[in-house]
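From the shared-data thread, chain only:
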Amino acid sequence: MITAEKVYKTILDMQVKEREKLFTVIARKGFEKDSYSHEEVFGDIRESPFILREAAEYLEVAEITLRRWVQSGLIQFKKLGRNIVFDPDELKRVKKSKAKKG
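Structure, as tokens:
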């Protein structure tokens, strides 16, 4: 079985010129497009609800900002006991609209 550790060790054992070739190939093949759509980047987001901390991290805002959005009705949420949770589709929608504004 190939593991990350084995691959890393193999890379370290390569001559410098071969390592340079490897990273050149990775750079070319790994980033074939100049820009990616929102769906291509975030389309595989998980389907389970996000807690406030996770949602704030995903939206790249402070937790207090997200709490303000909740209080002002800018984002839909659910209460699960005492916790505020967010549907991934709602977070995608907000992230997408935030990207269009910025």
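The beta strands are 50-51, 78-80, 83-86.
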